[in-house]
Amino acid sequence: MRIYLHVGLHKTATTYLQHRVFNLFDRDVIEFNPPGLMAPLNQLFSNLDAERGKREAWIAQAKRKVAEIAASGTCKKLLISEEDFSQKFLRFNFEENADLLKRIFPKAEILLFLRFQPDWLVSAYKQKIKHCPDLKIGQFLNYTGGLFHHDDSVNAIDAMGLDHSRLLSKYVHEYGKANVHVFFYENFKADKKGVVNQVAGVIGVENRTQSYTPVYKSDSALIIVARILAIKIMKSLFKGYHGPSPKRNSAKLPSLKEAWEKESLPTIMALVFRKARTRLWNRIKVANILDWDLLGRRQRRILEEFYREQNLNLLAYLGEATLPPQYLKKGEAAAILQNGAQSRTPVRSTGSLALPGDERVRRTTFR
């Protein structure tokens, strides 16, 4: 039985692929995310800090289920898709998760989707503020004094820790270069059908997707800034107000009548704002127009410079033509390929990064 592991990353249309592509594959040819196997896998990768005994039990249970599926002879191929396989969201624990997968699936082919790191960070921020709606992007990226700093706190991320080459090299080491298939979110967004056909071709199944709806569009910068401002005003007016509860599906929100009978005044006002925003969003779509880059010019310039230099390490595994143009600085790739990508000294992040010309030390170390 051939096994294919779609490991993410997060924020690279994983949910879209699961529901609109993988779910439509011929089940007589391939088994997709069988519940009996997904249960222990989800327990394991959602509870990496659990005591060792529990983790070992989930690993053993998953291995038994894989053996049962293989022995049953009902399917020749098994496809498992879970974005938590690549990392714990916002924590770049690539090696830890890859080691766990290797124990459960000693032989497999890896499907890995990447996204240009600065854009990934913005998308991750928009995901985070569903649960922390008044969190500013500077706080999330731990950007202060013109510098990005390392931070492991709950609401912050290491903005320069998303090293695609480190992730890729780990899977190549564990499963072999021929068994690691890399795709790019940018290519998928531009040509969904083309990339889906490539994925189906790797797996060896028919692409049955008939229509390709747009990828979900998250809140615009206008909505995010307006929400943060509204929460700030509410907190200044009501000392006991600590912000709205984590975002819920609009269909599950209580009616204003129900809220009036059960909720406090600040919560009622937040509900009114939420319902008004949803109605505006659904009917007028103004927020789709009034959008801008949440990073701003300076933060984006710092991050793009850093990651374009770091992404040169990807040339050891991928050809220049494979990478979307924004991943690399123009002109550098050809020189690296001419001299040999394998001989290049990798770039690793170690400290804080500032713009060229700043007196602070750039966050780049050559080893």
Brief write-up:
The chain is globular, with a radius of gyration of 23 Å. The strands form 3 sheets. The chain has a 5-stranded parallel sheet, with helices on both faces. The chain is an alpha/beta fold and 367 residues long.
Describe the overall structure:
The chain is of the alpha/beta class. The chain has a domain of 69 residues. Helix content is 46%, strand content 9%. It has 15 helices and nine strands. β5 and β6 form a beta hairpin. The chain is globular.
The count of β-strands is 9
Per DSSP, what share of the residues sits in E-state strands of 2 or more residues?
5-15%
Instruction: List the total number of helices.
Output: 15
Class from secondary-structure proportions:
alpha/beta
Order of helices and strands: EHEHHEHEHHEEHEHHHHHHHHEE
Mean pLDDT: 84
Q: Main β-sheet, in a few words?
A: 5 strands, parallel
The backbone outline, from C-alpha atoms, is: globular
Short key terms for the protein model shown above:
single chain, 367 residues, alpha/beta, five-stranded parallel β-sheet, two-stranded antiparallel ribbon, 9 strands, globular
Q: Secondary-structure map with pairings?
A:
Elements (H helix, E strand, L loop, with lengths): L1 E5 L7 H7 L9 E3 L2 H12 L5 H21 L4 E5 L12 H11 L4 E6 L2 H12 L8 H4 L2 E2 L2 E2 L15 H12 L4 E5 H6 L1 H12 L17 H17 L18 H7 L2 H19 L2 H4 L6 H15 L21 H8 L7 E2 L16 E2 L1
Parallel strand pairs: 1-3, 1-4, 2-3, 4-7
Antiparallel strand pairs: 5-6, 8-9
Helix pairs in contact: 2-3, 4-7, 10-12
